[in-house]
């Protein structure tokens, strides 16, 4: 069975989720046939860089676009012409994918330098997609730079990387740059929902939210997690299943425990901690979740504007409760709490009974 993230790779611009500015600019370029010779796609993992590079390769070579001016106005590849289908299947001689991470690209870039000089074999233009471009050696970068200085008219280079800062400025300045952003929690949840439906998987909303949260802005990670959960739990997903499988504690429990801590209710906090522990949750993970929650509440207390940022990564339930806590929280106490929790995190690592370190932090924070 094909992995979900491969089955659901976007094939057209309109199927790309988020990345509005990238999508708009590329669509306009396609409508006007105004393609650059070199692109740099950068941004976090699993956000659409390779997918969009392949869509762009199809758009550049689509035969339907070349012959039908009406269709060209859509700024999309047709997906059914010979060029589109060959590229889609990964069999196009003129679309060359290079993985700069393997062997750090030395032979690959040497081949590219030779290959780029010859005319396309089948299509209008040769497209080179260089993935993980930041991995190239200095030598390979220099060779690539020479090519970028005088690219032949029949060639387009698409460089992709998760580490923009490691790409030399000389390379960057010769490309048209596109930033791919993390997908928001809401975008990931709604994509998971659609895909779950197509796969006849039912699920509690909290279950998908938990997966989306763990994916931290990467749709590929979200789909891989979904795959994993379906493989182990079958076609009905509950929040409880996911808690068990991924070691992540339900956000409602994280909120309850944070609430007890923030309101200095040691008795309640200990009871909740033991309850969660007895259910078999991963305590270091719980500690991290609580620390994150309190850190966010404190940050929001200091700067309410941060709500806009948190909105992108959090579910509504959590955000609403965070806003409430941000108003109540006492800065000095919160700082102490966060420090104790971080300290406990380190101590838990070496302790055969991690609950002890956690418990001590709770008592020290709330009772002193
Ligand atoms: N913006 C997006 N729209 C739709 N699907 C996406 C998007 N981003 C990621 N995906 C999903 O995740 C999978 C992987 O995406 P892709 O390979 O394009 O990511 P990437 O940015 O190249 O990641 P990496 O940096 O790890 O190479 C796709 O097949 C698709 O299922
Ligand atoms: Mg990629
Ligand atoms: Zn086509």
Write a structural description.
The protein has helices at residues 4-7, 20-32, 49-61, 63-67, 69-72, 82-88, 106-115, 138-149, 169-172, 185-198, 205-215, 219-233, 239-246, 251-262, 266-278, 283-302, 307-313, 316-328, 331-349, 354-367, and strands spanning 38-42, 95-99, 126-131, 155-161, 176-179, 202-203, 236-237. The chain has 368 residues and is of the alpha/beta class. It has 3 domains: 4-179, Rossmann fold (3-Layer(aba) Sandwich); 185-246, Helicase, Ruva Protein, domain 3 (Orthogonal Bundle), CATH 1.10.8; 251-367, Zinc Finger, Delta Prime, domain 3 (Up-down Bundle), CATH 1.20.272. Helix 8 links the parallel strand 3 and strand 4 (155-161). Helix 11 (205-215) runs parallel beside helix 13 and helix 14 (251-262) packs across helix 16. The chain is elongated and about 75 Å long. It binds adenosine-5'-triphosphate, magnesium ion and zinc ion. Residues 49-50, 131, 160 line the site of magnesium ion (MG).
- Helical amount among residues, as a percent range? 55-70%
Strand content: 5-15%
Head-to-tail CA distance between termini: 56 Å
Shape: elongated
Number of strands: 7
CATH superfamily of the largest domain: P-loop containing nucleotide triphosphate hydrolases
User: What is the highest CATH level, the class of the largest domain?
Assistant: Alpha Beta
> How is the largest sheet built, in terms of strand order?
2-3-4-1-5
Total number of helices: 20
- Provide the list of bound ligands, each named once: adenosine-5'-triphosphate, magnesium ion, zinc ion
Q: Biggest sheet: strands, sense, closure?
A: 5 strands, parallel
Point out poorly predicted stretches.
none
